[in-house]
Amino acid sequence: MEIFPPKDDSQFILVDFQTGFLKAFKDKVVKQLQGNLSLLIEVMKYYKIPITVMEQNNSKLGSTTVEIQNSLAEHYTPFNKFFFSGFKDASIASAITNLKKSNVILGGIETHICVLQTTIDLISRSYNVYIVSDCVGSRRKEDWKAGLDKLKDCGANLITSEMLLFAYLETSAGPPFKHFLPFLK
Q1: Which pLDDT belongs to residue 91?
Q2: Is this structure's pTM higher than 0.85?
Q3: What domains are defined for the chain?
Q4: Is 149 in contact with 111 (CB distance < 8 Å)?
Q5: What whole-number distance in Å separates Cα of residue 2 and Cα of residue 28?
Q6: In which order are the strands placed within the sheet that holds 51-56?
Q7: Which residues are paired to 56 by β-bridges?
Q8: Which segments of the chain does DSSP mark as H helices, in order?
């Protein structure tokens, strides 16, 4: 597995960042996650990395937050799911597989449930999975930490949104760095 997911062989999956779930989260956590996810989504869009959005039972739990929908813009075409692992849903599994990208970057909620179960299924199918640790969350800090530990035990690589951004940028010279400067203030 590469230290960072290669830009030309990666895809991003946003897991269940929905209003219904987030009501149970602390406001401070929601604000941090939204800010970090917005940066990560901008990185994905800038480098033309495909984005898949999943929502858990969206008729009951609502859709992805408006802030994140706005960040996603035309990339907001969510798949509704009922399994905790998105890869158990045939249409989602097909969409992920059809992209023919062997590396998956993951963000969303909840770390110890849907993010974990989706990761386990992806790894079992030989995908390299990169969890953006500041872009995943759980209602309880203990579950978030235990989820990250289990994800690492399963073979996922843990990175942060800024780690990924700066690995992709490589230099402060040129237009890409200037493009992302406003996101870093």
Answers
A1: 97
A2: yes
A3: 7-184 (3.40.50.850)
A4: no
A5: 33
A6: 79-81, 51-56, 10-15, 103-109, 128-137, 157-159
A7: 81
A8: 19-22, 27-46, 58-61, 66-72, 90-98, 116-124, 141-154, 161-169, 175-180
